[in-house]
Amino acid sequence: MNLVMLFEDDFVAPGRALLCDHRLTHIKQVHRAREGDELRVGLLHGAIGSAVIERMTEREVTLALVLNQAPPAPLPVTLILALPRPKMLRRCLGMVAEMGVKQLYLINSVRVEKSYWQTPWLQPEKSRDSLLSGLEQARDTLLPEVHLRRRFKPFVEDELPGLITPGQGLLAHPRAPGIDELRLQLPITAPSLLCMGPEGGFIPYEVKKMVSAGCRAFSLGARIYRVETALPLLLGKLFVG
What we know:
- This protein is an alpha/beta fold.
- It has helices at 22-29, 86-99, 124-138, 152-164, 204-212, 227-239; strands at residues 4-6, 11-13, 16-19, 38-43, 48-56, 61-69, 77-82, 103-107, 145-149, 168-172, 192-196, 215-218.
- It contains six helices and twelve strands.
């Protein structure tokens, strides 16, 4: 981890934290840190900064903290993602947090198998672990919000139009016109919404519904990418300068 994440209940006094869980193991075995060494730390949903190891034993480590910097700015995007396969979902959650997405909607699609919704990785504690891992990698502290929408039509008809306004809605789809034809000014800095389907894209009915809700469909070209490839590719191309 590039940042040791702290939580409110880690604090034993103002500016002092005590860790005795997997973070202690990571500090000792990965960072190979000793008493007096400095670490990069951040408070969940708070500031980031540095910590000096005041005392470290086999069971615990005491840190003296200076938290005086804001976390990185989030990407100006709400991500709508057709629920990936369970093995891919864990990686996608980490990517979402790592790249700075703060609002994620996992939705249903004809090409999403019903069994996907039973995966343990959708349980709050499991998804939180994946998101925290992405934050630690990127030195961020703002945890993304994950919303589950198991019914496609009610979501697209009732919620999606409100999520697009007042920004712009984009739908990545393999058989749509190229991204250059949309004449977007990149990187996008205004609040926007990006929809991504399963591998192979949404079916025509779903595309039509999303376009009717206010999305503009575009393609990255002739290649069909895996979701775990398309996700960082799209976010990087559209929103990272």
